[in-house]
Recover the amino acids of this structure.
């Protein structure tokens, strides 16, 4: 399997990893004290959103950016 092309700026990658890791950690702590189906569902969604940020930041590839055709100036290749 081929690794996807990097389409996220380095600073944004760092931010995604930091926010994603924090969100996953917070969501895990909140899940430990959760009661009620709605609350657990929302906290699981919080953890999944954090994982999405963490993975896209670590890989440097955002599928939505690719779909929209957006490439930050700092990662554009000049021909």
């Amino acid at each position: 399997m081929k690794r996807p092309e990097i389409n996220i700026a380095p600073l944004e990658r760092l931010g995604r990893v930091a926010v994603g890791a924090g969100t996953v950690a917070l969501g895990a702590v909140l899940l430990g004290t959760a009661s009620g189906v709605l609350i657990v569902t929302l906290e699981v969604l919080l953890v999944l959103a954090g994982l999405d940020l963490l993975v896209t930041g670590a890989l440097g590839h955002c599928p939505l950016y690719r779909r929209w055709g957006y490439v930050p100036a700092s990662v554009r290749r000049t021909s």
In short: The helical segments are 10-32, 37-59, 63-68.
